[in-house]
Amino acid sequence: MPAAVVAPSAPAPSLAHLARQAAAEWEREVESPYFVRVGARHASVEEDKRSLREAFERVIQPIYGDQRKALHQIFQDGDREARLLKHGGRSVGVLVFKNYPVTEDWEKMCAVHDSLEIKSLFVVDPEKDSGKGYGKLLLAEAKAACSELGLERMHVTVNDHAKGSKGFLLHGGFQEAGRAAVRHTQMASVETLLVWES
Asked: What CDD domains is this protein classified in (predicted)?
């Protein structure tokens, strides 16, 4: 009877190999973008509140002026929720929405019923982070928030100065529902109402 051939067993992984494997796994988790909820209804870390303030100062304030009232509505009043998109240890995107269904007659032109109102959706540094998929993640998070609230539609107004934002949202499934001249602080402009339905 021929002797059985026994394959040599693989050497047990060294402790150093296991440590490297665990570190690589941890790094992959850390490197994945994730959302942090910021607002009166959430135990927000001061660093995340500061990041949100800085993002509003950098991106929103130049268009719409002082944002203290909007930030107060997020941090204190609780009628809005912010979700910071973080990646690589920094805030890369912002989503802010009213955390209840909205029904309104927008600029006396068209009605929006039982809709999630997006107040802000933007990539913090588009020059640095364009093409990395952060906008798509923010839009997916907005759709998830809509679903969490049991809603089938959401809406957002887009300033005509933000042509890239409007195109992005239209490409993401929003439809134009109306346009109106509005005044924010010293600046008059035209805004477009965009609506998305599931």
From this structure: NAT_SF
Q: Is residue 191 part of a domain?
A: no
What is the C-alpha separation between 65 and 135, in angstroms, rounded? 23
Residue 49 lies in a domain: yes
Q: Could you give the dihedral angle defined by the CA atoms of residues 27, 29, 33 and 36, in that order, rounded to the nearest 10 degrees?
A: -120
Residues of the chain with pLDDT under 50: none
Q: Quick one: pLDDT at residue 7? A: 55
At residue 78, the pLDDT reads 79
**Residue 167 forms part of a structural domain:** no
Query: By residue range, what is the domain housing residue 40?
Result: 33-154
Domain count, the chain: 1
Dist CA 120 CA 134 (whole Å): 14
- What's residue 159's pLDDT? 80
Q: What is the rounded CA–CA span in Å between residue 80 and residue 65?
A: 19
- Say which CATH number the domain at 85 has: 3.40.630.30
For the chain, how long is the longest CA-to-CA vector?
Answer: 97
The residue behind tokens 């268009």 is 63
150-177 residue pLDDT tens: 999 999 988 877 778 889 999 999 999 8
